[in-house]
Design a protein that fits this description.
Layout lengths: L12 H17 L7 E4 L6 E3 L3 H6 L6 H5 L9 H9 L8 E3 L1 H8 L5 E6 L2 H20 L9 E5 L2 H8 L7 E5 L7 H16 L4 E7 L4 H11 L5 E8 L12 E7 L5 H16 L6 E8 L3 H9 L11 E4 L2 E4 L31 E5 L62
Parallel strand pairs: 1-4, 1-6, 4-5, 6-7
Antiparallel strand pairs: 2-3, 7-9, 8-9, 8-10, 10-13, 11-12
Length: 423
């Protein structure tokens, strides 16, 4: 489908998360002298006018770059991203917003290579024209063009990725962010990554995705966690509680395979600020998860073993003033009865999730403890896990901020996802 045009959504909260993370990945890649290849599978137009008809139709930039434009006390990690946006608006008025190709062009070095793909015929023409203007401006400044540094191709980024991996320099940053207009996009992303990791397992892959109510979106991150990458990081940003009509994009995520070790602490420092500035109501929050590749018995359990809850299938449930994680088909103990799952809880710790999750950072800056790996053949299913002790609050599976308790002490379930546009 070619109906999606990112000009209608440029500069929204999803763009802020995506481009902030992209800036940090480029800065990390620039620390080594060896050149790298930047590959953008769904480039879009490259630059967007925020005063255009498309952008002003819904003014989605007011949910993202708008509040940040004049924000104060900005965290240090966020400044390079904001400086880049303001540099393309020298008048001081917020008129233009960069797409991911422009971000890469500004941060990549002269020896690095950019390979940009776009399937929409109108957007690929605008992309080529925008880069022609960039090259013309550099020529006026006395900068010489360096060979075929930037290549723009009208084509399918999923298929084109295959011919570019592995790069000659053995260093690459790949950004994948399709429109997700059709359910098949989720499968295409995973298949493309599976193939890419087989060709170039040490590459850095960044995937943007919407957090929606549809099953494909809720299961997407868990499916990516099972890819054969050495490490992964998953971060989500939610700016408001989903509405009852099921429309609108309220939350999005960035999933990075083989992330730099510097990214997680930078996210911990910056995400609370973004929640504070961009958040619309009490539903605003963020989550950060990290994990490692599954191997051996854990990988077999993920593929063939007990069913692992995904998305909203695992949530806090009210039970006599304490939280309980219940899987479909499990009975809930009545008030006054002893929960059989709590028997022997002190004797053995709960087994880690089959996704290989290492830690989850909550919005208050605290982290869940890193679970110890169980011996093979001794892992317990989710139904054997003990419940929290009396009086303790339930920790959501996503690591989000726990809901405030009601007067009767019962926990409240976390609101579900929402269906909406892409970015």
């Amino acid at each position: 489908m070619l109906s999606y045009r990112h000009a209608f959504h440029a500069g929204n909260h999803a763009d802020v998360l995506k481009h902030f993370v992209q800036v940090q990945l480029h800065l990390y890649m620039n620390q080594k002298d060896v050149p790298y290849t930047y590959i953008d599978t769904h480039s879009g137009a490259g630059v967007y006018a925020l005063d255009s008809f498309q952008s002003t139709k819904k003014s989605e930039f007011e949910t993202g770059i708008g509040p940040l434009w004049s924000a104060t006390n900005v965290p240090e990690a966020l400044k390079p991203y904001l400086d880049l946006v303001k540099a393309m608006n020298p008048s001081g008025k917020m008129r233009y917003y960069p797409g991911s190709p422009y971000v890469a062009e500004q941060l990549a070095r002269a020896e690095d290579r950019l390979r940009l793909f776009e399937l929409h015929p109108a957007d690929v023409r605008i992309l080529a024209e925008n880069f022609r203007k960039v090259e013309a401006h550099k020529a006026e400044q006395g900068e010489r063009a360096r060979g075929r540094r930037v290549l723009i191709e009208h084509g399918d980024g999923f298929e084109s990725l295959k011919k570019l991996l592995p790069p000659l320099s053995r260093r690459a940053l790949v950004l994948i962010d399709p429109p997700y207009e059709i359910k098949d996009d989720y499968r295409k992303v995973r298949d493309a990554l599976d193939d890419a990791l087989g060709r170039f397992p040490s590459g850095m892959y960044a995937i943007w995705y919407p957090v929606l109510q549809r099953m494909e979106s809720r299961q997407f991150a868990d499916r990516l966690k099972r890819l054969p990458a050495k490490e992964w990081l998953n971060v989500t940003l939610t700016v408001s509680t989903p509405g009852p009509d099921g429309f609108g994009l309220h939350s999005s995520g960035m999933f990075i395979l083989n992330p730099p070790y510097t990214l997680e602490p930078l996210l911990r420092q910056t995400l609370p600020y973004l929640v504070q500035v961009l958040g619309k109501d009490a539903g605003a929050r963020f989550t950060i998860e990290t994990g490692t590749q599954l191997t051996g018995a854990a990988a077999r359990m993920a593929a063939d073993g007990p069913r692992t809850p995904v998305g909203n299938a695992r949530r806090a449930s009210p039970l006599s003033g304490k939280g309980s994680l219940r899987l479909p088909g499990q009975s809930m103990p009545r008030e006054g009865e002893e929960d059989p799952r709590a028997v022997g809880a002190a004797a053995a710790p709960a087994a880690p999730r089959p996704t290989g999750a290492r830690r989850v950072w909550r919005p208050d800056g605290t982290a869940a403890a890193k679970p110890q790996a169980p011996a093979q053949g001794n892992a317990r299913s989710a139904s054997d896990r003990p419940t929290a002790p009396a009086g303790a609050q339930a920790r959501p599976a996503t690591g989000a901020r726990p809901a405030a308790p009601r007067k009767d002490g019962a926990g409240t379930p976390r609101p579900g996802g929402n269906k909406g546009g892409k970015r």
